[in-house]
Amino acid sequence: MKIKTRFAPSPTGNLHIGSIRTALYSWLFACKNQGKFVLRIEDTDLERSTKLSIEAILDSMNWLNLNWDEGPYFQTERLNRYNFIMNDMLLKKTAYKCYCSKERLTYLRQLQLIQKEKPKYDGYCRNNDKYHADNEPYVVRFSNPQTGTIIFNDLIRGTIQVKNQEMDDLIIRRTDGSYTYNFCAVIDDFDMEITHVIRGEDHINNTPRQINILKAIGAPIPYYAHVSMILGDDGKKLSKRHGAVSIMQYREDGFLPEALINYLIRLGWSYGDQEIFSIEEMKQLFSITAINKSASIFNIKKLLWLNHYYLNKLPAEYIAKHLIWHINKQGIDIKSGPKLIDLVNILNKRCKTLKEMAINCCYFYKDFIEFDDNAVKKYLCPIAIKSLHHIYKKLVILNDWTPTSIQLIIKKTADELHISINNICMQLRVAVTGLSKSPAIDVTLYTLGKLRSISHIEQALKLIVSKVK
Ligand code: GLU
């Protein structure tokens, strides 16, 4: 069997990690089995679907490198096909027109609730041959079998059965001519020859209905796998409160695609105790049956840990390619400073995200630095004039601008002035970076270069002097 999976998001809002995780699992399953992966945009809900949301889906998939073999298909472009199948179903009486008014349906529902029955359409129009004028509004309903049981083997959850009696004659086309999710998804899965439907557990209830429609149109039934929810650390539905954001926000926040993908695969799937997986390993090792049945708990600290791991593990050239996006966002012109690769190599140990790197590297590229008030208060007191001036004079005449020589000068200054190296380092750090945190000071000055280091110290000295006055 040629495996084919799909990711079928509705473009009605932000793309969240739960959705992208099912995309990842579908993609991996197709990759592992040399199959195909289809991207389908389920945009039949015209009121709620937006272009922005479609763009976010495509951007997210591209950013994460979840490349699709077919599509993107858009359901709004497939209306002729849906019309064709629906008309055929009407002819074969596996679907029927329902003219029931809103009032009747509301009354029916209330009655059923009073009688403690599950609200369900009573099939009034199923065999109703009454005459109706052409312009009389109607919906088209699926004629769900009334006896028997639907049994399917969920690849994650095992056997699931639902009695046909419990299922509604669901609407497949609304009065305004638009089609509903369950119908379109079924026709698409059939036409696109999907063999494995991997999706969120919120669709479990739809599966027996979809199987019935598939049977009615004589289509093969795919395998189904329903992936559990992702919850916040308080056990509640994941929301912004837990630090969960749209996929592209993770990019904004400075995460690498490798880190997010690695995080997502482990969030609900395991291979022994292994935490780190390269994409190649994922493709080899992934299996649907090892997906966890229970809900997963989102943990931003673990994601940050993985991001830090990948910032250090992946080649600096590669990290630099991702970093440039963030550097541009900070409005930094990198032509006037160190190469990005050098920057990555000195910042990757200290930073957990690319954004943090970009924010913390401004001083390398700017002639005039911004001094952090607290750092200035703490380290650039009048007493620092003497030590900074002392070291400044030595640095001005230093020709061998290397970390080792710079380190020697710092030591010498500390000895000559009888102050601690740590003290000198902190004063120098704030003087050249404006901040109280930076990579090792000798490496920082070396990377900053002689001219800029000297100019920054001059600015710091001026600042202290101006405060004394
Ligand atoms: N469009 C549906 C959703 O976004 C997915 C349906 C499916 O995978 O069958 O929830």
UniProtKB/TrEMBL annotation:
EC number: 6.1.1.17
Motif annotated as 'HIGH' region, chain positions: 9-19
Cellular component annotations (GO), alphabetically ordered: cytosol
Alphabetical keyword list: Aminoacyl-tRNA synthetase, ATP-binding, Cytoplasm, Ligase, Nucleotide-binding, Protein biosynthesis
Any GO BP annotation: glutamyl-tRNA aminoacylation
Domain of life according to the entry: Bacteria
Binding-site positions, ATP: K240
Subcellular location: Cytoplasm
Chain ranges of the Aminoacyl-tRNA synthetase class I anticodon-binding domain: 320-461
Catalytic activity field: tRNA(Glu) + L-glutamate + ATP = L-glutamyl-tRNA(Glu) + AMP + diphosphate
Motif ('KMSKS' region): 237-241
GO molecular function: ATP binding; glutamate-tRNA ligase activity; tRNA binding; zinc ion binding
InterPro entries: aa-tRNA-synth_I_cd-bd, aa-tRNA-synth_I_codon-bd_sub2, aa_tRNA-synth_I_cd-bd_sf, Glu-tRNA-ligase_bac/mito, Glu/Gln-tRNA-synth, Glu/Gln-tRNA-synth_Ib_cat-dom, GluQ/Sye, GluRS_core
Enzyme class of the recorded protein, top EC level: ligase
Main subcellular location of this protein, as a coarse class: cytoplasm
Domain Glutamyl/glutaminyl-tRNA synthetase class Ib catalytic: 2-305
SUPFAM superfamilies (UniProt xref): An anticodon-binding domain of class I aminoacyl-tRNA synthetases, Nucleotidylyl transferase
Pfam families xref list: Anticodon_2, tRNA-synt_1c
Oligomeric form and interacting partners: Monomer.
Family of this protein: Belongs to the class-I aminoacyl-tRNA synthetase family. Glutamate--tRNA ligase type 1 subfamily.
Function: Catalyzes the attachment of glutamate to tRNA(Glu) in a two-step reaction: glutamate is first activated by ATP to form Glu-AMP and then transferred to the acceptor end of tRNA(Glu).
Protein's name in the database: Glutamate--tRNA ligase
Organism: Candidatus Mikella endobia
